[in-house]
Amino acid sequence: MSTPFKGIETQLIHAGEVRVEGAVCLPVFQSSTFEYSGQGSYHDLKYIRLNNTPNHHALHTKLAAIEGGEAALVMASGMAAISTALIAFLKAGDHLLAQSCLYGGTHSFITQDLPDLGVTFDFIDGNDPDSWAGKLRPETRAIYVETMTNPLLEVPDLRAVVRFARAHDLVSMVDNTFASPVNFRPLAHGFDLSLHSCTKYLNGHSDIVAGCVIGKETHVSRILHKLNHLGGSLDPHACFLLHRGMKTLALRVRQQNENALRLSQFLSAHPAVERVNYPGLETHPQHRRARELFEGCGGVLSFEMRGGVKEADALISRLKLPISAPSLGGVESLITRPVTTSHSGLSREEHARVGINDKLIRVAVGIESPDDLCADFEQALEGL
User: Fold this and answer.
1) How far is CA 49 from CA 77, 218, 233, 333, in A?
2) Which of 232, 245, 286, 364 matches a 20 to 30 Å C-alpha distance to 134?
3) How far from 297 is each of 104, 186, 264, 326, CA to CA, in Å?
4) How far apart are CA 384 and CA 380, in angstroms?
5) Can you list the alpha helix ranges (DSSP code H) found in the chain?
6) Which CATH number is associated with domain 249-381?
7) Is 244 marked active-site?
8) Which ranges in 21-157 belong to alpha helices (H)?
9) How large is the greatest C-alpha to C-alpha distance in the chain, in angstroms?
10) Which residues contact 349 (CB under 8 A, 6 or more apart)?
């Protein structure tokens, strides 16, 4: 969606703003339905479930602006965005290519729910483009990846994904949650659809659940019609909170970029730590690619301590700042073992296949002082 504002900081604050009675902040339109005004299409009727209240429209305009899309659509959760987008472009008999290491909910939807709808799939190695053609079928319709994988922070060959999709007429979808539009804007690199769990960085305050898709008008309209039938609409008050949270996105993410890099450097140098996964580290296998593509590497890192689950749990219990909880992207730091939270739906065999072990710890850094975060980890690691 075109906008006169060039900087994302300005777009986040001013794009899509509507002044009602001179109010600086858009009010919550807490009405389930609106007066009929001659709309000729079911999807144009003003109704919360049809995702077209003034609160929805303001968000759609702002989201499209910050990623350079023609249109955007908010939904009730990140999984609503992912599942609805996939269902909108896949029908019985179709085939999907998906990156092998994904968020647990996405992995379970692809492996457990899509087959029930008659959709087949193959997992691909995001860093081995030469192997993708071997899994391509005449009925392949889409390719799905994450900007940075959850929770191992791998950076797939995103340029190759776009080239492959175009060469084989596939819809290219990327979950851009971990990067956020501050660090990476997929549509500018040729992706068809950018998806987010708005619960995370876009909202930034751990108080709502929401999702979105951004892309071409034709693609987003197709998803909207599917969403209107499935019913995964976002409540206007949640729209209001997301709209408010987005205005500080650039400030928050840049602090989280700095905090995660500082903490990953500290952990990498600590004798009790065996391995750190963070694309901002020069030791990361896709560090060069991350530097070329991203303006920052985000606020999530994962690591393994020397020892096992006992040591991992002991560390988590001794920390004072990070809260032991799932999710990410909020102003407070969170810490968890993915096998017990985000990826608990996977079997042990699936954990092993994608490289997630029991002692892996994921940290989602907030906007606290990086000195305080490092000091907290230092005291927690002492003696372990």
Assistant:
1) 14, 20, 5, 34
2) 286
3) 21, 14, 11, 20
4) 8
5) 8-14, 54-67, 78-89, 104-108, 158-167, 180-183, 217-230, 236-246, 249-268, 287-293, 309-318, 348-354, 370-381
6) 3.90.1150.10
7) no
8) 54-67, 78-89, 104-108
9) 71
10) none
Catalytic residue among 103, 144, 201, 278: 103
Kindly give the confidence (pLDDT) of every residue in the chain, 384 residues in length, as a single tens digit, with 9 standing for 90 and above.
Answer: 455 778 999 999 999 898 888 889 999 998 888 888 888 888 888 888 989 999 999 999 999 999 999 999 999 999 999 999 999 999 999 999 999 989 989 999 999 999 999 999 999 999 999 999 999 999 999 999 999 999 999 999 999 999 999 999 999 999 999 999 999 999 999 999 999 999 999 999 999 999 999 999 999 999 999 999 999 999 999 999 999 999 999 999 999 999 999 999 999 999 999 999 999 999 999 999 999 999 999 999 999 999 999 999 999 999 999 999 999 999 999 999 988 877 777 777 776 677 788 899 999 999 999 999 999 999 999 978
Sign of CA dihedral 314, 317, 320, 323: positive
Q: Which of 49, 135, 163, 244 is labelled catalytic?
A: 49
* Active-site annotation holds for 200: yes
Q: Which of 62, 185, 200, 252 is catalytic?
A: 200
User: Would you call 36 a catalytic residue per the annotation?
Assistant: no
Fold of 8-246: Aspartate Aminotransferase; domain 2 (3.40.640)
Catalytic residue among 94, 141, 157, 175: 175
The encoded tokens of residue 133 equal 């053609």
- Nearest 5°: the CA angle 69, 74, 76 is 155
Domain boundaries, the chain: 8-246, 249-381
pTM of the model: 0.94
103 is catalytic: yes
